Inverse folding.
């Protein structure tokens, strides 16, 4: 168990170092000059040079990488070129939108997907199964920005139950803030739930065909008990894997949904920073996301060990 | 059934609540597509900075009015010496900055000297290039001496980049802007909204609105439901393609105005075969402006024949010089020895007018034998490759700075255009303040650019504004980058 986790930790740390090099190199290769972007069409070349010096862009590559990477180790993420505030402040403002949004969406998708998966698997090949999997197919196929717009027209424009977009901030109260995250969370959760339901169904069907299920049934356990206690638990590993991947996706990959609902989340921050060539913001936020993904994957690895006792015994 | 009843009841209730909130409003939520990178108009070119702060938070010696006219602002009047080189500004008294400190001639000197200093990062440093010195005569009088007479000096002082800032707050304006305007900055929730509130110690006519929120809505598709739900009451710069969705709705005003954005098919004048006049003229004949405006701008936008806004008093209509004529274009290419046509690239920045317009232009040029490879680029790439390194054949862009015909005389500008006659006219224009003489020179300048077919002149970018029908006083046109809220009010 300890060796298993230690190995995971070493892999995680070296992934981080490697990622920092790749992220930094990619941003450096990207054409475009943040100083020219800020000064626009009418500024002369000498002025752009002036601003580049002020921004510290003219320092050589390797010292800049070491300075940045060294800062990361002491949790100093640098200062934004365009906003001229510490990157960590920008992240703190954004993460209070993105993290709750991702968690609500994740919870919604799990709550929807697991029962649907179980329902389908236990009625494999029958009408209920076909209907549920047809709906899941639709959920995967519908583009989420379109689905989001339909939700907005129904719940914000027609019924006026929630705002059409925007985020009032947690200072405005818990309910107004949560209310503005509900539609985006649903828009994010449904396609994820559709994928998760399909995975849960096929994992469960596989398990239901195992010998020990037949044994359990043969010794007289009711079908429901077999399904929920024995089968579902054994089908959890693929479900957890997908869930871990989805969380990473939800945290970082929500640019489209954040645009449609104009939410000030992390995805928007990165997108904006790339457009403005605010390199330090992109580099630092991407590193934070890499770290978040790695941590989530570690947790998933750890949860395998909880779900599957055999892993605990392995060296 | 029961669920439906509950939903309907909730809907009716919230509708009622919304209706009662409309009485005697003094608040306003405005949607803007791009977030300003920071809030200091004297330190960045982004239009979004001025579109929040100009005339609302910051004021200059002069200001630009709704139709592009120069109006007095912090300077209540001025006199100009006979040689046209000395401007003496009489300033308003009793003016205070939002931090409570007094405004005086010292702040004017500080602001102008700062903008033209060697280490200045003012994006429009050229506006101040003719200033020789700035003298404080007394706290309410400031004298600006120019190196040469400059016809556009009072106009230049009305730009957002020339607003007056206080030495105490100049370095922190990016985060917490302090000006003299009728609104003061309250809060910036990054990525979300910027809030301004009425300033109580304003020197001029008080404004009708107590609180204004500029909410950032990057997606054009999200703007329509935001208007329909009442969350946002005005979009001064609305996506032309979405206009049809709100046009017939009596709750909204749809206002089509003009901007200073000359949308052009820019040509690299030094790169063969575009160095040949016939080739550039052939391109101009090949363009069908109407088709381009219909396809790229939902039919909104006025065709142009040179680099001047049709809304300008100095505009000369040259659109008849190169009517859409495929045969003529082919003939000219033949004269240039290119009857078999040639291949070239077309680099397109992100705005819709460029991406959609590019597709149409590529198909129009293909008809005369010019085969274009379309290369979409981001703004950062565009500025780097096209604007700075001049590594391009053709590109589409809108030049939104007002009165900017002089860019064609700039050395090393990305058009790579070089015409001494044109340069002489612009040099003379810069020294001329007589209106009639200026008009004549500007007319000549427009004619030369059209004759040389320096670029393909397409159309003037429209300003499409959509706002609540009960709202009054928003600008119809955009003579300068601004959302001036000083005259805005609700009518019930």
């Amino acid at each position: 168990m300890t060796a298993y986790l230690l190995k995971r930790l070493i892999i995680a740390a070296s992934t981080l170092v490697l990622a920092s090099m790749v992220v930094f190199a990619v941003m450096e290769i990207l054409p475009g000059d943040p100083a020219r972007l800020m000064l626009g069409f009418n500024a002369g070349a000498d002025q752009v040079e002036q601003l580049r010096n002020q921004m510290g862009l003219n320092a050589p590559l390797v010292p800049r990488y070491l300075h940045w990477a060294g800062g990361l180790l002491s949790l100093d993420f640098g200062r934004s070129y365009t906003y001229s505030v510490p990157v960590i402040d920008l992240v703190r403002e954004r993460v209070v939108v993105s993290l709750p949004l991702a968690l609500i969406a994740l919870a919604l998708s799990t709550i929807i997907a697991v029962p649907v998966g179980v329902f389908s698997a236990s009625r494999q090949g029958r009408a209920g199964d076909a209907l549920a999997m047809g709906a899941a197919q639709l959920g995967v196929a519908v583009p989420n920005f379109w689905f989001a717009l339909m939700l907005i027209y129904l719940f914000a424009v027609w019924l006026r139950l929630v705002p059409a977009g925007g985020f009032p901030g947690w200072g405005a109260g818990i309910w107004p803030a949560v209310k503005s995250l509900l539609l985006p969370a649903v828009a994010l959760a449904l396609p994820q739930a559709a994928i998760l339901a399909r995975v849960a169904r096929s994992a469960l069907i596989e398990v239901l065909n195992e010998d020990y299920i037949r044994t359990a049934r043969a010794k007289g356990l009711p079908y429901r008990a077999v399904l929920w206690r024995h089968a579902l638990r054994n089908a959890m590993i693929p479900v957890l894997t997908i869930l871990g991947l989805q969380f990473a996706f939800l945290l970082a990959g929500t640019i489209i949904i954040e645009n449609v609902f104009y939410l000030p989340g992390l995805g928007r921050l990165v997108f904006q920073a790339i457009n403005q060539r605010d390199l330090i913001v992109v580099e630092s936020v991407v590193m934070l996301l890499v770290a978040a993904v790695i941590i989530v994957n570690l947790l998933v690895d750890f949860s395998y060990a909880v779900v599957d006792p055999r892993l605990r015994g392995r060296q | 059934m029961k669920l439906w009843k509950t939903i309907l009841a909730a809907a009716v209730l919230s509708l009622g609540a919304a209706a009662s909130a409309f009485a005697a409003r003094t608040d306003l939520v405005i949607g803007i597509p791009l977030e300003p990178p920071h809030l200091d108009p004297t330190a960045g070119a982004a239009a979004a900075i001025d579109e929040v702060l100009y005339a609302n938070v910051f004021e200059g010696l002069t200001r630009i009015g709704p139709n592009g006219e120069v109006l007095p602002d912090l300077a209540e009047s001025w006199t100009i010496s006979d040689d046209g080189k000395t401007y003496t500004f009489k300033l308003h008294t009793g003016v205070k900055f939002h931090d409570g400190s007094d405004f005086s001639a010292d702040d004017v000197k500080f602001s102008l000297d700062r903008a033209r200093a060697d280490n200045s990062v003012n994006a429009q440093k050229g506006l101040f290039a003719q200033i020789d010195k700035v003298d404080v005569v007394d706290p309410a009088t400031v004298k600006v001496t120019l190196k040469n007479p400059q016809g556009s000096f009072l106009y230049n002082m009305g730009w957002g980049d020339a607003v007056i800032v206080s030495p105490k707050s100049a370095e922190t304006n990016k985060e917490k802007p302090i000006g003299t305007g009728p609104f003061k900055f309250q809060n910036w929730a990054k990525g979300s909204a910027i809030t301004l509130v009425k300033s109580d110690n304003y020197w001029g006519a008080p404004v009708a609105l107590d609180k204004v929120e500029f909410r950032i809505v990057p997606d054009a598709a999200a703007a329509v439901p935001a208007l329909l739900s009442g969350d946002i009451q005005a979009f001064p710069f609305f996506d032309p393609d979405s206009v049809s969705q709100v046009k017939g709705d009596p709750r909204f005003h749809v206002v089509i105005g003009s901007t200073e954005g000359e949308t052009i098919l820019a040509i690299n004048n030094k790169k063969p075969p575009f160095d040949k006049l016939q080739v550039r003229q052939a391109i101009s004949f090949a363009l069908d402006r109407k088709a381009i405006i219909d396809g790229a701008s939902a039919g909104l936008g006025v065709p142009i024949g040179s680099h001047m806004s049709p809304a300008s008093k100095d505009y000369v209509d040259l659109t008849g010089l190169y009517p859409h004529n495929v045969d003529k274009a082919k003939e000219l290419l033949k004269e240039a020895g290119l009857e078999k046509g040639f291949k070239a690239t077309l680099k397109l920045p992100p705005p819709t007018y460029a991406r959609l317009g590019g597709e149409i232009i590529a198909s129009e040029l293909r008809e005369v034998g010019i085969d274009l490879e379309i290369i979409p680029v981001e703004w950062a790439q565009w500025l780097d490759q096209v604007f700075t390194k001049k590594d391009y054949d053709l590109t589409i862009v809108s030049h939104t700075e007002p009165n900017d015909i002089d860019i064609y005389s700039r050395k090393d500008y990305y058009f790579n255009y070089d015409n001494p006659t044109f340069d002489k006219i612009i040099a003379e224009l810069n020294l001329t303040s007589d209106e009639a003489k200026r008009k004549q020179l500007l007319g000549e300048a427009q004619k030369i650019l059209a004759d040389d077919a320096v670029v393909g002149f397409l159309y003037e970018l429209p300003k499409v504004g959509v706002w609540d029908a009960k709202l009054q006083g928003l600008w119809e046109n955009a003579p300068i980058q601004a959302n001036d809220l000083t005259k805005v009010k609700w009518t019930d």
Summary: The mean pLDDT of chain A is 87.
